[in-house]
Amino acid sequence: MTRTTWQDLPRWQRATTLVLAPVEPALTVVAAVDLSRRPAGRIRGPKAVWWPTLIVQPLGPVLYLGWGRRT
């Protein structure tokens, strides 16, 4: 198996990687801050379950921000 290098990637894939790379950690930080500040009654399920979920990238923060919070 040959290893794919940065130069082997098509231009659109390189551009997408550069644009989306900072989004993942930013979502995690936003979700972690929200989880720490939000009262337990305004979260679907226990906070202890959501903390490890935030580590699962990229779905954990997206699930928490989209579904885990009660408004």
Name some characteristics of this structure.
elongated; 4 helices; about 0% strand; mainly alpha; about 70 residues
Structural commentary:
- With 71 residues, the chain is mostly helical.
- Helices cover 59% and strands 0% of the residues.
- The chain has helices spanning 11-20, 23-37, 47-53, 59-68.
- The longest helix is centred in the middle third of the chain and has 15 residues, at 23-37.
- The chain is elongated.
Describe the SSE topology.
Blueprint: H1 11-20, H2 23-37, H3 47-53, H4 59-68
Main sheet: strands, sense, barrel? none
- The general outline is elongated
List the helices and strands in order. HHHH
* Secondary-structure-derived class: mainly alpha
For the terminal residues, how far apart are their CA atoms?
A: 49 Å
What's the gyration radius in Å? Answer: 16 Å
Mean pLDDT: 94
Q: pLDDT below 50 for ≥5 consecutive residues: which ranges?
A: none
Concise synopsis of the structure shown:
The chain has helices spanning 11-20, 23-37, 47-53, 59-68.
